[in-house]
Design brief:
The complex is a heterotrimer of chains A (274), B (369) and C (293). Chain A has helices spanning 13-17, 61-68, 96-104, 114-117, 124-134, 140-153, 170-182, 200-217, 228-234, 252-257, 262-273, and strands at residues 23-33, 36-45, 50-54, 76-83, 87-90, 107-110, 188-192, 220-225, 237-242, 245-251. Chain A is an alpha/beta fold and 274 residues long. In chain A, the strands form 2 sheets. In chain A, strands 6-7-8-3-9-10 form a 6-stranded mixed sheet, sandwiched between helices. Chain B has helices at residues 8-24, 34-40, 42-52, 57-66, 71-83, 131-134, 156-162, 190-199, 202-214, 282-294, 311-315, 320-328, 335-357, and strands at residues 100-105, 222-235, 244-258, 271-278, 366-368. In chain B, helix 2 packs across helix 4. The longest helix of chain B is centred in the C-terminal third of the chain and has 23 residues, at 335-357. Chain C is 29% helix and 18% strand. The relative contact order of chain C is 0.16. In chain C, helix 3 (82-94) links the parallel strand 2 (70-75) and strand 3. In chain C, the strands form 3 sheets. Chain C has a 7-stranded mixed sheet. A 3-stranded antiparallel sheet of chain C has the order 7-6-10. Chain C has a two-stranded antiparallel ribbon with strand order 12-13. Chain C is α/β, with parallel strands linked by helices and 293 residues long. Chains in contact: A-B, A-C, B-C. Chains B and C meet through helix 1, helix 5, helix 12, helix 13 and strand 5 of B and helix 3, strand 11 and strand 12 of C.
Chain lengths: 274, 369, 293
């Protein structure tokens, strides 16, 4: 887990065309009120790909992420997922039980606020062990050993295993949340502003860790962020959202270096001015 | 030598005898009659009828007498009686538009068709103890007033309805599920929520309403209309096939008007919160209306941020009979559980001590099964 | 001692509940027996005793009791605690059935917090009073959520609790109301019995019925059904054992109540199961007499 990968794995779109997409999203819409939510979103996500969803707050990014990750039933559209266990699934046509099984096995969800993704009142070890126990692991020492390995993988001292997340710093909590998700070797991770609310130096360390883990484990990731620097560092491809709609899609460097849509241009220039 | 505690039977008999004695009080004072309670403590009777879910002022008064005036105990008595009653049928929906109105007020319109009438209310009394009552002076006969009952009149909220400014009351001809016969599952439909709230503890609902108005909720309602009076109850006997009047009951009804900012399907408009109670229990009708509306947050697509908007939290805890039972069950013996905990605490302390002192400790061991 | 058959009180149906209600409850019981460990919602009635005082157990008892049944009621293992007396009287009054304090003689046993020490036989029914039927309640407050967790067998969160115990104390520290898996499928609370009693549930020849009045749930363990207490492979389930023996009957293998005998905190230990203790003490006396002769 200690080798460092300098760049996001450079995959060409050509490479992906040979593979079947892991996730196919077709005309997905979810609105709370007119203009509030996201509409008519379609895209494919390939194995090993990191897709960034960027846009200002209120642009519908989080609504989209929740609709993709079975936490919010969309009004319209389909999300097709190719599952290891169940084959090709049209998520919202199938049973809720399947979605919930996916959420604790093949998927991971990293929340912006660690308290939404962690059990704050049980130890770090139990937080990591929960998913193992959920899939039937019943050997305490084995569970504990795996928890120690994953604490180390996310650069938390193994001696903290019996401490509660509330005793951890914000950055450590976020790393613990990541370990808790990765312990069952998921294939697809959903992240919502994983570096939001962290200090800049803490952010950098977390990003570095994320980038390494994603590359080493070959994870597919959909990451929502309003921070274009985060997007540039992690994502292969970007989707720019504004008022619930996707206004531009493309390879990360293309979108950030040569934005086509006026709104993307504005986003990119506002970053430069900052 | 210790002998296991015996004598439960005698203890219970003695407790009952003492209770009867205390309830009767000083025998130099005349015994209170059920008729006196019914006539002179009508609001207590109304509460017991409402939460007891039986419209019978005499039985409610009896329950109050038997319960030494404890409303929760009286409600319990009436409920336990109610369970044993056979069901002859379900009445037709009450038409409160035809109510013989004794009191009708609106916080939203100064004047309205049919008018307002204050009726009998504590609202504008100055809360000064009346020592004349202490001296057992007879209450002077009421002044001649023009307080003839109002003519039947349309509900205030229907005036808004004609402009389309308030949501339509969803029409539903299905017979509501009877929560005293079937278990509730969540999310519960509106008819179930309303039944639960009407039977709910007045104090609990009052405090929740207060909380939701103070910011732990999103309730900023207007009292569209509160009305009290008699309504007729009709039943369709199977062998007749048409409704016949089986009696009259006094009801208090409250409709609250709440703002609503619109959803993806609905334009901004007012929404309703509905409450009702037996007798003149106006506080109860208002709190039911407030909480009814608060619990609609989910179906209206509003954010559910507070326990006051959370169906399971509110509806699971409204019932005073259940709540009282569960809290009071702590008075039952828990020797066995406590013994188990005692043993566990001692063991944990021994182990903690062993680690510190490294001293051998024996006593209770656990064996593998 | 068994009491003579008492006549039933006027004005109420046999065993208080009307026959339609009993049928409804029996349907719920049948469903519960068919799906061991699954909590069946039922239209729980108001009983003339408060919720939390055994109304669930009483509704189950009222629905299965017949005129030829012999009823035993215990609370904390004892026949003479006030609540046991009160419930026994209720059925003596409303059903006019024979009651007994002898475990061996009873056809129905309603219990709160204990399983009798004497092994039960096929044909007997043990009815537990249950305050909180949902083993996952203190992990997840929402009923809509816990029902999904059962449906999908999402029991990892309960194991988390046991993990925390081992991590903190070196062993599982739950001492009563210890969760079990029934027939390898549903997680179930055995009601707040001490974990000492848990092994008795496994493969018991008697039918076990559980009634929760307040929460309106009935569940069951049919005779000879596997009931396993949760644990870890390397930290197996274990029960309490006492160094002391019962001060009355000398038992060294039953659940003991601690009794404080003076202001200085002197203690003695006696069987919590009063019938078991009485039986043993009696047989000790007979043994002693035989030895004298």
């Amino acid at each position: 887990m200690n080798s460092i990968c300098e760049q996001p794995a450079m995959l060409n779109s050509d490479d992906w065309q040979d593979m079947e997409p892991l996730l196919s999203v077709q005309n997905l819409s979810k609105f709370y009120a007119p203009g509030k939510g996201c509409g008519n979103v379609s895209f494919d996500l390939y194995p090993g790909e990191v897709l960034g969803i960027v846009g200002e707050s209120g642009s519908g990014k989080s609504t989209l992420l929740n609709s993709l990750s079975a936490r919010l039933v969309p009004d319209e559209g389909h999300v097709i997922y190719r599952s290891e266990q169940f084959g090709e699934l049209d998520l919202y046509q199938g049973e809720e039980s399947l979605r919930r099984q996916l959420m604790r096995s093949e998927w991971g969800i990293v929340h912006q606020h660690p308290r939404d993704g962690l059990r704050m009142n049980v130890s770090a070890g139990a937080n990591i062990g929960e998913r193992l126990m959920a899939v039937g692991e019943r050997h305490y020492s084995e569970i504990r050993q795996r928890a120690i390995e994953w604490l180390q993988a996310v650069e938390i001292d193994a001696s903290r295993i019996d401490d509660r997340p509330s005793q951890f710093s914000g950055g450590m909590q976020q790393r613990l949340q990541i370990a808790r998700n990765l312990v069952t070797h998921p294939r697809l991770i959903f992240m919502d502003e994983p570096t939001g609310g962290l200090d800049v130096s803490v952010q950098a360390r977390l990003l570095d860790l994320l980038r390494n883990l994603v590359a080493q484990l070959g994870l597919s990731v959909i990451i929502v962020t309003h921070d274009l620097a985060v997007a540039r560092l992690l994502a292969h491809r970007l989707m720019v959202m504004r008022r619930g709609e996707v206004v531009e899609t493309g390879l990360t460097d293309q979108v950030l270096d040569d934005p086509q849509h006026p709104y993307t241009q504005l986003l990119v220039s506002s970053i430069l001015q900052n | 030598m210790y002998v296991a505690v015996k004598g439960g039977e005698r203890a219970i008999d003695n407790a009952h005898a003492l209770l009867a004695e205390r309830r009767r009080g000083n025998r130099d004072v005349a015994e209170l009659t059920v008729e006196q309670i019914r006539n002179q403590l009508p609001l207590a009777v109304d509460r017991v009828m409402t939460e007891g879910s039986v419209y019978d002022p005499e039985l409610a008064a009896l329950a109050l007498k038997q319960a030494s005036g404890d409303a929760v105990e009286a409600i319990f008595l009436l409920r336990a009686y109610r369970t044993t009653l056979p069901r002859f049928g379900y009445s037709e929906p009450l038409n409160t538009e035809t109510m013989q109105i004794e009191r009708r007020i609106s916080g939203t319109f100064k004047d309205l068709p049919g008018g307002q009438t204050l009726g009998a209310t504590y609202d504008y009394t100055h809360r000064l103890l009346d020592f004349a009552l202490l001296a057992e002076g007879e209450t002077p006969p009421s002044l001649e007033t023009d307080s003839a009952p109002l003519e039947p009149c349309p509900r205030v909220l229907e005036l808004l309805n004609s402009e389309g400014l308030i949501e339509q009351s969803p029409k539903n001809d299905e017979r509501p599920r009877d929560i005293t016969r079937e278990p509730v599952d969540y999310p519960a439909e509106r008819a179930v929520r309303l039944q639960n709230l009407v039977r709910g503890d007045e104090g609990f609902l009052l405090s929740l309403s207060y909380a939701s108005m103070r910011g732990y909720g999103d309730s900023h309602p207007f009292a569209g209309e509160i009305r009290s009076g008699q309504v007729t109850v009709e039943l369709v006997p199977e062998e007749l096939g048409f409704p016949v009047v089986i009696g009259e009951i006094v009801l208090t009804e409250c409709e609250m008007v709440n703002q609503f900012h619109g959803s993806k399907t609905e334009p901004p408009q007012f929404t309703r919160g509905y409450g009702v109670s037996f007798g003149y229990n106006e506080r109860k009708a208002m709190t039911v209306a407030l909480m009814e509306r608060a619990l609609r947050a989910d179906e209206l697509g509003e954010a559910v941020n507070f326990p006051t908007q959370d169906q399971e939290f509110v509806l699971s805890h409204t019932d005073c009979v259940s709540a009282n039972g569960f809290v009071s069950h702590l008075k039952l013996p828990h020797y066995v559980d406590f013994q188990s905990e005692l043993e566990m605490i001692r063991r944990l302390r021994r182990e903690a001590g062993k680690q510190e002192n490294n001293a051998p400790a024996s006593a209770v061991e656990e064996k593998t099964v | 001692m068994s009491t003579p058959q008492m006549t039933q009180v006027e004005g109420y149906n046999f065993a208080y509940l009307d026959e339609q209600t009993k049928r409804m409850i029996r349907r719920a019981i049948l469903k519960a027996v068919a799906i061991p460990g699954y909590q069946v919602p039922f239209g729980g009635r108001e009983m003339p005793l408060p919720h939390g005082w055994g109304t669930g157990g009483m509704q189950v008892t009222a629905s299965v009791i017949g005129t030829d049944d012999r009823l035993k009621v215990i609370d904390q293992g004892a026949d003479d605690t006030t609540n046991a007396v009160s419930i026994r009287r209720f059925f003596a009054k409303t059903a006019g059935v024979e009651t007994t304090e002898k475990t061996a003689d009873a056809t129905l046993i309603q219990t709160r917090h204990r399983v009798p020490e004497r092994p039960l036989q096929n044909g007997q029914i043990l009815i537990y009073q249950v305050p909180v039927p949902e083993p996952l309640r203190f992990i997840e407050a929402r009923d809509s959520e816990t029902r999904k967790m059962h449906a999908l067998r999402e029991y990892g969160a309960m194991q988390v609790k046991l993990y925390e115990d081992v991590a903190r104390f070196g062993h599982i520290a739950t001492s009563y109301d210890y969760p079990v898996m029934v027939n390898g499928r549903y997680m179930m609370t055995p009601s707040p019995i001490p974990k000492f009693d848990n092994p008795k549930l496994n493969g018991m020849p008697a039918l076990q019925l559980f009634g929760a009045g307040f929460e309106k749930r009935i569940y069951a363990v049919p005779p000879y059904t596997e009931v396993q207490s949760l644990d870890f492979d390397d930290y197996p389930f274990e029960v309490q054992q006492w160094e002391e023996s019962c001060a009355i009957c000398g038992s060294d293998h039953s659940f003991l109540d601690e009794v404080i005998t003076d202001d200085a905190g002197s203690r003695m230990f006696v069987c919590s199961d009063t019938d078991y203790c009485r039986e043993r003490a009696q047989s000790n006396r007979e043994q002693a007499q035989e030895n004298e002769q």
